[in-house]
Fold:
Amino acid sequence: SVLVSKDMLYSSTTHVEMSNIKDLRRNYEPQMSITAEKGSNIIAMGVVEDFIYLNRSSSANTLQVWLRRTQQKVGRLSAGSKITSLLTANDIVFCGTEAGVIKGWIPL
Structure:
């Protein structure tokens, strides 16, 4: 998954890395890195304000919530069934599920 939010580039496979877009040509070291559990891949990712939302292959029906600056896991959100899509817009997190339900959360 690749995502751009507020001049920051986020990429994820087995871990999440964040880099400043302006520094990419000079520095390839990420400013932040979050590692997923062993044997788990990150399927989808969203960023809203200070939070990163991750959908992992090992728990496909939940979103993990991480603090962006401290790389600390602060919670999780259950969608009820397997998450098939994730979208962040206007400070709201939306996810579509395998059951055909669209859920939305507003971070506080």
